[in-house]
Amino acid sequence: MDFTETIKIIPAAVIGLTVHEFAHAYTAYRLGDTTAKDEGRVTLNPLKHIDWLGFFLIIMAGFGWAKPVSFNPDNLKKRHRDEILISIAGPLSNFALALLFFLIARGLYFTTFFNSTETGLAIINLLGLWGVINLGLFVFNLIPLPPLDGSHVYLTYLKDINPRLMTHLYTYGTGALLFVILAENKFHLNILHLSDMISSLTSTILRLLAFNG
Question: Least buried of 57, 66, 187, 202, by fewest C-beta within 10 Å?
């Protein structure tokens, strides 16, 4: 990836990761737990949320993460349900961001300046790229492998049924995930088929938004 492409990606990565973690923190707060708020995570300040390894990976490999948001399940009224809601709030915020970027791009596409000038088309393409990046964060974080959000849909129950197994999944899940990401990037493999899913989802959204007229 050249320097120009990296510069284009950085704003989307910062916005996407920040809003993602804010959504976790705010949802936990609304559901009765103040842990994230007490730690200063109910904020849109990127410095409170960015994990530099995860940020580096999203720039280099297209997928990454931010600092996880802490919450205390004992403070939740309906623990299993609320843990799942807190977990999916992050990916859903990225999906909403992607739609927002695509909608702005669509609106600009149907104005004379933006669809007929090099600068205008460049801005539209940049917004489209930011939309795709946030779709990538949406899909990536739904992978059911710790520490990603998709794993919490079952881990919230597993820790009651088999806490030892849950501990093992957390212990080895992060390493396995990192290995797969680096292997895909280094050897051009398609283990998780994330690119296919993101491409299909992007095409569907653009078709529904009638980008072709």
Answer: 187
